[in-house]
Amino acid sequence: MANESRPCPCDIGDRFDYGGRGQEVQVEHIKAYVCKPPASTDKAVIVIHDIFGWQLPNTRYMADMLAANGYIAICPDFFVGQEAWKPSNDWASFDDWLKTRNASKIDIEADVVLKYLSEKCGAKKIGVVGFCWGGAAVHHLMLKNPLLKAGVSLYGVIRFFEDRSSLLHPTFFIFAEKDDYIPLEQVTLLEQKLKQNCKVDYEVKIYPGQTHGFVHRKREDINPQDKPFIEEGRKDMISWLNKYL
């Protein structure tokens, strides 16, 4: 059951006080944040933001982490100039806001970013990771985009794509045990459908005691017991990409 007063709790916990090591670029009609590793590589990862948009320091921190692990990381503005959600907004208006930002309507932007990574960055093996809204977008891309090699969906909103499980590429799904927005029954149902229909490698993992947004939140300063699971989620994300890219 979703928390109706706060229907998408990505903003729980501290924000990173973080400026980022990369730079902002213009990719055709999209603004994007790009961070490159010290050594040249032909591997890249598209990072899809949550409802708080491409400029959220937490998400840029994750892009930089990917770059530190040897990947060209790009976080495009998949809202394409529309305002990101703000914690100060009235949550009663959230559903109407969300209707104008559909996680399955990103194909044009994804193709633009893939072209940029291939032609301007020399990327030949490209994966995608995403958080919350972005996790749902990863699920969508894994169902239909032939140019991507692997994906990691972190607490992607299952109800957006719950009936679609014929993935094209290896996909890792990260969920939190105590996620008020994604009930464990939905996760179980997703697993069942993947088992029935999915022909590629996949994994669904639930992290005990964690809540929505845990991997890209700085919560270890508040609850030290969460730190091992935050680190495990990040390590698992990198390991999946290393395996398939």
Automatic annotation (TrEMBL):
<dbReference type="GO" id="GO:0005829">
    <property type="term" value="C:cytosol"/>
</dbReference>
<protein>
    <recommendedName>
        <fullName>Carboxymethylenebutenolidase homolog</fullName>
    </recommendedName>
</protein>
<dbReference type="InterPro" id="IPR042946">
    <property type="entry name" value="CMBL"/>
</dbReference>
<feature type="domain" description="Dienelactone hydrolase">
    <location>
        <begin position="30"/>
        <end position="245"/>
    </location>
</feature>
<comment type="similarity">
    <text>Belongs to the dienelactone hydrolase family.</text>
</comment>
<keyword id="KW-0963">Cytoplasm</keyword>
<dbReference type="InterPro" id="IPR029058">
    <property type="entry name" value="AB_hydrolase_fold"/>
</dbReference>
<dbReference type="InterPro" id="IPR002925">
    <property type="entry name" value="Dienelactn_hydro"/>
</dbReference>
<dbReference type="Pfam" id="PF01738">
    <property type="entry name" value="DLH"/>
</dbReference>
<dbReference type="GO" id="GO:0016787">
    <property type="term" value="F:hydrolase activity"/>
</dbReference>
